[in-house]
Amino acid sequence: MSHPASASRYFVPQPSYWPLVGSCALLLLASGAVLMMNSVANGGFVVLAGFAVLTTMLFGWFGRVIGESEGQRYNLQVDRSFRWAMSWFIFSEVMFFVAFFGALFYIRVLSIPDLASPAQAALWEGFQNSWPSAGPAATDPFSKMHAWGIPAINTLLLLTSGATLTWAHWGLVAEKRSQLIIGLVLTIALGVLFLGLQVFEYAEAYGHMNLKMTTGVYGSTFFMLTGFHGFHVTLGVTMLTVILFRVLKGHFTAERHFAFEGVAWYWHFVDVVWLGLFIVIYWL
Amino acid sequence: MQATSHTGYAGHHDHDSHGHPTGWKRWVTTTNHKDIGSMYLWFSFVMFLVGGAMSLIIRAELFTPGLQYVSPEFYNQMLTLHALIMVFGAIMPAFVGFANWMIPMMIGASDMAFARMNNWSFWLLPPAAILLTASIFVPGGAAGTGWTLYPPLSIQMGMGMDMAIFAVHILGMSSIMGSINIVTTILNMRTPGMTLMKMPLFCWTWLVTAFLLIASMPILAGAVTMLLTDRHFGTSFFSAAGGGDPVLFQHIFWFFGHPEVYIIALPAFGVVSHVIPAFSRKPLFGYVSMVYAIAAIGLISFFVWAHHMYVTGIPLTGQLYFMYATMLIAVPTGVKVFNWVTTMWRGSLTFETPMLFALGFLVLFTIGGLTGLVLAMTAVDIQLQDTYYVVAHFHYVMVAGALFSAYAGLYFWLPKWTGHMYNETLGKWHFWLSMIFFNIAFFPQHFLGLAGMPRRIPDYAQQFADFNVISGIGAFGFGFSQLLVLVIVVQTVRGGARAASRPWDGAHGLEWTVPSPAPYHTFEDPPHFDQAEAHG
Amino acid sequence: MARNSNSNRLRSGSSGRFFAALLGLFSGAANAAWELNLQEPATAVARRVYELHSLLLWVIVVIFVGVFAVVAYSLVYHRKSKGHKAATFHDNTTVELAWTIVPALILVAIAFPATSALVDMRDTSEPDLTVKVTGYQWKWGYEYLTGDAAGVKYMSVLSTPREQIENKAPKGEHYLLEVDRPLVVPVGKKVRILTTANDVIHNWSVPAFAVKTDAVPGFLRDTWFRADKEGTYRGQCSELCGKDHGFMPVVVEVVSAEKYAAWAGEQKQQMVAVAEDPNKVWTLDEQLALGEKVYTTNCAACHQATGEGLPPAFPALDGSAVAKGPRAAHVEMVLKGKAGTAMAAFGEQLSETDIAAVVAYERNAWSNKLGEVIQPAEVKALRGK
Ligand code: HEA
Ligand code: HEA
Ligand code: CUA
Ligand SMILES: [Cu+2]
């Protein structure tokens, strides 16, 4: 039973409770986190409740969208809207990372050299301009994260995953479902492997290198940037998994598969961010 | 199920089981841009009263020297919440409300591009507002750092600060989703024949504003996230001991903050660019240069941020660069002012309330802009930074600028929204009271600032007493005059003279081609675009 | 117009309410405070800034009047009620170019004086005298690094009595702009100010000198002035620094070279005189007397004279678990403060004698009657750790 999309009429969805549910979820998450961070009451439960509501909302809302899409309710104009929206969303994500890369740049190029300059010598005697640095008051020695171990492997993994995803896309366009499925599975596997290695790397850092969030600006920037990136990889893997399940259910056609492409764009964006990280965090 | 119930016009053929919710359910579930626009506007008005009430606490405390009514800590909290609520809760949502109501009607679209997400953008605001206002009541109270949230002071704050941080995150999500929606609607849903250069200016201002929002809100989110980890997880972004720098926060904040002030100003420019031509009965002068000016303002606004940081010790070369770049913004803004002036020149002017507010905007925004220029000169700003001169400057551009323009838009489009004409006499009263009291409240602050009265203080030296009394009287007068809006809007919603589909004879644009009130679903199919309605 | 610092307007003490204020407003008596412009400059740099501001003011007034003269003309003559018919023009490249280029040229023109004034302001080279200024919540610390008074070091705290602030006593002439110990500098000498802060960002500002520089914790910033005339110059902290931001004025006393030299000599002598013997053994009474003083100047802003604090932001010390608990933890709290809160590390500001005294005071005042004496040596031992 299909309801072909009207070519001239734009799809406007039915009234929906999901937005309100989403707002409640965020309110719960935020209040729970506030309570937790200030060790008041039992914030953890509130956060968990928030996650539960959020997950329900995501399933419900996206389920609805997928249903509408499979019901062919979206005409080409809607498809274009989705493309615009995804591009702008990725742009906003880029700007989010810009804030952290900007902070790293500022710290390395301005604040550390300034703290080590003669002008500040009266306050921080003997502090040397070097990188990595945990700042002038640091006493705890730590070791630097080297580029050519796990990070290099991770770079390879992510680059390869970009390629496998594109290969999967070719499969989709060429109606080769098995190539599509294999490509997706490979991409997801590479993503998961990446995450696994990153967890290992963090464990090394905390366990053996004395490199922590609290290790001055080096620790701060290292964990914030790689951490947020890792979080985005997790999101990407989740979305790819959803796509995989949809593929297995026979969704998408060679012409119409915006969801696949949107996730692919996202994955490539995450890839590019990693290259930036690899260069400025690990390498230089 | 019938196929027709899904062809897109939700609610139109609701024969199926999940019909159209009514009552409060209509409002929480709605996907209609008009409903959502109205919710934004009501929300923003409520927030305006709340934020305004806080400003009255501030002004009451400042009425005379000495500590009168509130403690210094509470004063700081009021100051912070006043600003955050006014900026993020009142002014920005007001213009998003206008965008929701007007953009689909102006460009001949059936609704916003993502009607369901649109609803979420709105419903994210109440949780943020709850977090902000509730923070007054938690142990330690709300953030008392000023809306700029500078560390290390913000590191010292209690849990109210965390609530503000999460509120900012949620507001950011709301703004980003709202903006993506607006950009997509404008770029993808114009009726055939409406090219970008024929599009109403209000849409242009929103296109650029939405771009600014998408680019700058994530930056703010990043800044407050680092604040959060510095507070709770031991990072050292903003602490010199760990190699960071408190001033880094200021760079990031203002990299967001300066575009933010244009996010407030640009839609206001858009509204005025419709009102002035309508009541001059003459097309807007210099449409093309207006578009370029908007784009230029948007672009330059990303490169001037450190004019808020002249006294932080940035190097001389930095001060010079930011001074020159800031001065540059006066040029495109000047173009806009001159275009409005020339639109009125040799027009056939009448002075209904929307026009009065637009004129009030023009005069007072220009004053605010010109004092901005004084502040842009680093050497002078070093005298004036963190004094009441700055407070005067930004209330001129934000209250007499953005808020007056929002009122102009409200009176201009209210007939279209409600189908009734508002009470013109009351409208004029509202304008004149606002105009007079606004100046009483804020003009003297220039003198206070020049004489050296710092901002953000709950008590001051004796020589500042007189102007503070005047300012206080003005603020209370201005505040209570705003209650007239409530009276007028409620009256208009409930009745009044019927409005024609084009109640203003000089108004152009697709929105005036449909009946008043505009039907719930205005354009089911893309309308014919008559060139006479070009440029709105 | 009289200078603000000289304005002499006494108000009735009960001027806390509306009508009193209105009376003051309309009485017109001696309203030297209707100050409409920048404060009278007292340095060459401030004069340049003053002139630059005057120039800018004229420029913007002329622009404003020009633009709104046109508007006024339209409003009067081009109104519908006068039967004016609307023209239809909507473009004119020539005028549009003109009003892009002319403002740009105006801006270029004012950029020149603006630039040179700024370059002058930032030139801190070759000072005659350098003073390090440290911002604390909520007081200023001054330390003379060079010159006659090199080595002199003291705190400068608001001296306006609490009763005036709470409207229980008539406000004095320099209400909120007076301190116990001003910064003293010689006239006509180039004074370089190095600013930094101990806790949060403050800002050291004296309008008559056109000096305003942030004091950023962990960084040194500098600025300078060369005062023309002897006199007392007043300013205020100009960066929100928490609760008592409005209560940390800056007062600079500019004196003749001789007076300055004499003052410096006096300060140095005093320093030697009060240099405490860290090995002195204190009695309880001696300690409580000193401790109360230290407490009032350093701690009462947050923990209040009553010891009740302002919970929950600032905890009560009366009955506090720390103040009644083990002494080492108490001393340590005062020495090292608590990171991430307003509780600063006083070990960097106060001597061991002072810390011992204040801790002893806290352990004996209010209801904390522990009867303990704490010897400076004990503090010294803990500081070493
Ligand atoms: C709607 C908001 C808005 C707008 C539009 C502006 C517009 C401008 N602002 Fe303002 N500003 C704020 C909101 C805004 N500002 C806020 C909120 C703060 C304080 C934040 C805080 O600290 O809390 C602030 C603070 C602020 C500062 C920092 C002051 C300080 O803290 O020390 C400076 C300094 O350069 C500045 C400059 C300017 C300039 C040059 C413009 C220009 O865009 C103005 C351009 C307009 C004109 C110049 C008038 C019209 C032009 C003509 C008629 C043409 C001819 C003119 C000439 C040739 C000169 N602003
Ligand atoms: C767009 C934003 C906006 C708007 C609209 C306003 C509106 C007003 N502002 Fe605000 N203001 C800011 C943005 C804004 N402000 C910012 C960004 C700051 C800087 C904060 C900082 O330093 O960090 C600031 C700071 C600020 C100060 C400086 C405080 C200080 O530095 O110590 C003052 C002081 O006079 C002030 C006054 C006012 C007044 C009187 C109004 C009036 O226009 C308000 C009028 C409206 C009302 C008064 C509401 C009327 C309602 C009632 C009368 C009834 C109440 C009833 C119920 C609640 C049911 N504002
Ligand atoms: Cu110190 Cu404000
Ligand atoms: Cu700015």
From TrEMBL, chain A:
InterPro entries recorded: Cyt_c/ubiquinol_Oxase_su3 (IPR024791), Cyt_c_oxase_su3_dom (IPR033945), Cyt_c_oxidase-like_su3 (IPR000298), Cyt_c_oxidase_su3-like_sf (IPR035973), Cyt_c_oxidase_su3_a-hlx (IPR013833)
Name of the protein: cytochrome-c oxidase
Gene3D superfamilies for the chain: 1.10.287.70, Cytochrome c oxidase, subunit III, four-helix bundle
Membrane-spanning parts: 17-37, 43-63, 84-107, 148-168, 180-200, 220-245, 265-283
Major place of residence: membrane
GO CC annotation, single: plasma membrane
Record-listed E.C. numbers: 7.1.1.9
Top-level taxonomic group: Bacteria
TrEMBL record, chain B:
Annotated EC: 7.1.1.9
Pathway in which this enzyme or protein is active: Energy metabolism; oxidative phosphorylation
Subcellular location, record wording: Cell membrane; Membrane
Domain Cytochrome oxidase subunit I profile per the UniProt entry, residue ranges: 27-530
Alphabetic keyword roster: Cell membrane, Copper, Electron transport, Heme, Iron, Membrane, Metal-binding, Oxidoreductase, Respiratory chain, Translocase, Transmembrane, Transmembrane helix, Transport
GO molecular function: cytochrome-c oxidase activity; heme binding; metal ion binding; oxidoreductase activity
Transmembrane segments: 39-58, 78-101, 122-143, 163-189, 201-228, 248-272, 284-306, 321-342, 354-380, 392-414, 426-447, 467-490
Record's GO cellular component terms: plasma membrane; respiratory chain complex IV
Domain of life: Bacteria
Family: Belongs to the heme-copper respiratory oxidase family.
Function recorded in the entry: Cytochrome c oxidase is the component of the respiratory chain that catalyzes the reduction of oxygen to water. Subunits 1-3 form the functional core of the enzyme complex. CO I is the catalytic subunit of the enzyme. Electrons originating in cytochrome c are transferred via the copper A center of subunit 2 and heme A of subunit 1 to the bimetallic center formed by heme A3 and copper B.
Full protein name: Cytochrome c oxidase subunit 1
From TrEMBL, chain C:
Principal location listed in the UniProt entry: membrane
Segments forming domain Cytochrome oxidase subunit II transmembrane region profile: 30-125
Location of this chain's protein in the cell: Cell membrane; Membrane
Residues covered by the Cytochrome c domain: 286-366
PROSITE patterns the UniProt entry points to: COX2 (PS00078), COX2_CUA (PS50857), COX2_TM (PS50999), CYTC (PS51007)
Secretion signal span: 1-32
Record-linked SUPFAM superfamilies: Cupredoxins (SSF49503), Cytochrome c (SSF46626), Cytochrome c oxidase subunit II-like, transmembrane region (SSF81464)
Cofactor note: Binds a copper A center.
Every Cytochrome oxidase subunit II copper A binding domain range: 126-266
Gene Ontology CC terms: plasma membrane
UniProt function note: Subunits I and II form the functional core of the enzyme complex. Electrons originating in cytochrome c are transferred via heme a and Cu(A) to the binuclear center formed by heme a3 and Cu(B).
Record's catalysed reaction(s): 4 Fe(II)-[cytochrome c] + O2 + 8 H(+)(in) = 4 Fe(III)-[cytochrome c] + 2 H2O + 4 H(+)(out)
Topology in membrane: Multi-pass membrane protein
Cofactor field: Cu cation
Keyword Oxidoreductase: yes
Stated family: Belongs to the cytochrome c oxidase subunit 2 family.
The enzyme's E.C. designation: 7.1.1.9
Keyword Kinase on entry: no
CDD domains the UniProt entry points to: CcO_II_C
GO annotation, biological process: ATP synthesis coupled electron transport
Species classification: Bacteria, Pseudomonadati, Pseudomonadota, Betaproteobacteria, Candidatus Accumulibacter
Single GO MF descriptor: heme binding
TM regions (residue ranges): 56-76, 97-119
Pfam family, one: COX2
Protein name: Cytochrome c oxidase subunit 2
Keywords for this protein: Copper, Electron transport, Heme, Iron, Membrane, Metal-binding, Oxidoreductase, Respiratory chain, Signal, Translocase, Transmembrane, Transmembrane helix, Transport
